Amino acid sequence: MNTLDCPIIKFNVLPDPEKPVCLNVKYDKNASFAAGSTFPDFMVSVISEDNNIIKNINPGRVSMKMWEGQSSGNRVPANVTTLGCSKVKDGKDEGFFYFRDKMVPERVGTYSIQFAFAIDKTNILSSEQIIIDVVPNDPVQLLPESLPATPVVSNVRTVASRTLIKDLCLHIKDEYNNRTGNDLVGKIIAAIKSCSEEDTDTPVFQGKVKTIEFPFNRGSAEIVNLVLAENSPGKDSTEYILEFEADLPALAKPLEPYRLSFMFYNDFKKQQRMATLTRERDELSKSIAVYRNMFDTTEQLVTEMKYQVQEAETRQSHLKNELKKHQIDIPQTNIFQYVDSLIKQKMLEQEGVKKSPRRSCTLSNYSKDNQDILGKIAHLAQIEDDKAAKVISWHMASDMDCVVTLTTAAARRIFDETQGRQQVLPLDSVYKKTLPDWNRTLPHLRNGRNHFRPIGNPVFARDLLTFPENVEHCQIVFGMLLGDTIIIDNLDAANHYRKEVVKITHCPTLLTREGDRIRSNGKFGGLQNKAPPMDKLRGMVFGAPMPTLYSTLSGQIDLLQQYRTAVVKLHSVNQDLHSQLQSLNTPEMQKTKQELAEQERNLKLIEEKLGTGSPPKSGWQPGRETRTLPVPPVSSLGPWQWQVCSPLGQWGICPKHADTTWHND
Question: For the segment 237-278, what is each residue's pLDDT rounded down to a tens digit?
Fold first, then answer.
């Protein structure tokens, strides 16, 4: 079998600098995540195939997702909280997206965070999941494991009738009801306080003592068999406060004591009768508090929805006015059909502009297989004006083929690969202190005023350059190679300009739009100072940027797409508000209001029998018996998700925290 020899073709597949492949997330990995505190700043960037940061990305396409627990693999559960990025300060850090001042969940536990970049409507690029442990915040209060019923006691001989607490476990908790203080050791001091300063006949504990101490260890204390003294002093049919105060030397700030109201009677039979009424009152107080929370939450939801409608109307109106500035008027009817048709038309027009012929550099660029290689100088800048492009390209002809690198090492590698035939310019070897100030004024200006009146429209050559990317690096390159070179209309104007400038300062090189050059030493004339026609430059000319019409159309398309989204949003929030308002007048809601009114009447009757005007000050409190879970913010919830607590114990929205749910255990 014969084999044929054939030439070996080597080719290099270049990475796509516009194709996103991963997200880079930076944050303080040593930070602690205390419940209810603020996350450290997250800095996110989108990385391309060539391992560089992709810029010019709409911040709305980058988001932060958070949920409780861990997901298998890289899957994101349905019930996640989605947060947007913060505004970039002063327009700096292009390509970086910051997530600042985001709140840590209020419930202790393990949470997952993942950042996402919407490549298009169907493809999402996600970061690796960040697993965090939310720990309790600072201890602030002393609370029981479960709230006891209001004690009703008397000073009779029977111990059971004098027992304030049979068994109660107290824990230290933070302001979000998370248990904490496991490392604290000390004691709990129980004392009885009067609700009235005039009442000095305060009951005492068994043994005729005013205070009793209980050991506190590992964040908890067991209060067992707390009994009043037989024949204890105290005013009949009076409410007193049983106060538990923590004495913990390691805590710099004292905790809020736990207070439990109790009713005191001198008569055993009356005590038994009132104990039954007190239990009924406690149950009614619980139920009424749940109902009131439900109505408060519903009112809060309606207020939030009205605010959303107002926001959506403002957004739509703003975008409509912006479109009018572009001579685009939106009709009152068939909005979606009109906008979709106009977007399609603008996109076709934009595509036509993109494909229209324009000046381009035909010099082959150097392979950017290394992030330290910026490319050849001819490809780093673009110039809109044809005359300026011709004369500047000719003036820089000896530099156009030079490859610019960030490091000397990269430059040396290119030098070796080309056996020294390729010009290279490493930027780490440039002495930057002698570079011209990019914002310097023309030499005929002194203190903001003309020293003389120039002719010929002089302008710095560097100000005619636009840089598609790597702006800071390109400013170094062209600042060094072009310096303060000035472009002016013609040779007569150039000679007049130079003659006047040298009276006050040094005059830089002058290039004319007709192709002449006056060197900084004043020399002009001859073939070496006259630019040839454009076709003689053999493609070594700076390309033209995309026409202004292209960016105008891009802006119009973006505005139209935003306007369409705003119309959809307004329609959605209006529907949600209408549905919610209708739900307030349903038979079920009317029945709920009647139930509340009935319970309030019954509570008032019981209070009259008990001889008190209100429930005990530290009886059942809804906020003390809630559990908080992170859920999507109000703006992302539909009406069906706003189920509110009823006496049956359904899930709902906590009135105190609009971004947490609560449940009556």
Answer: 888 999 999 999 988 888 889 999 888 888 777 777 777 777
Question: Which ranges of 115-267 does DSSP label H, i.e. alpha helix?
Answer: 159-162
Average the pLDDT over 117-133 and give the result: 89
Find out whether 202 and 231 touch, Cβ atoms under 8 Å. no
DSSP bridge pairs for 143? 171
Between CA 626 and CA 630, with CA 629 as vertex, the angle to 5 degrees is 145
Three-state DSSP class for residue 570: helix
Spell 39-78 as b/e; 16+ CB within 10 A means b: bbebbbbbbbbbebebeebeeebbbbbbbbeeeeeeebee
Q: Helix, strand, or coil here: 23?
A: strand
What pairing do the DSSP bridges indicate for beta strands 220-227 and 403-405?
Answer: unpaired
| Three-state SS letters, 138-151 | CCCEEEECCCCCCC
Burial class for 648, CB neighbours closer than 10 Å (0-12, 13-18, 19+): exposed
571-582: pLDDT as tens digits: 999 998 998 888
This prediction's pTM: 0.57
Q: Does residue 164 contact residue 192 with C-beta atoms inside 8 Å?
A: no
| Distance, CA of 423 to CA of 411 (rounded, Å) | 9
CA distance 355 to 87: 34
The pLDDT score that the predictor gives to residue 73 is 64
CA 594 to chain centre: 44
Cα–Cα distance for residue pair 35/26, rounded to 1 Å:
21
Burial (0-12, 13-18, 19+ Cβ within 10 Å), 362: exposed
| Alpha-carbon span 464 to 237, nearest angstrom | 92
CB 652 within 8 A of CB 664: no
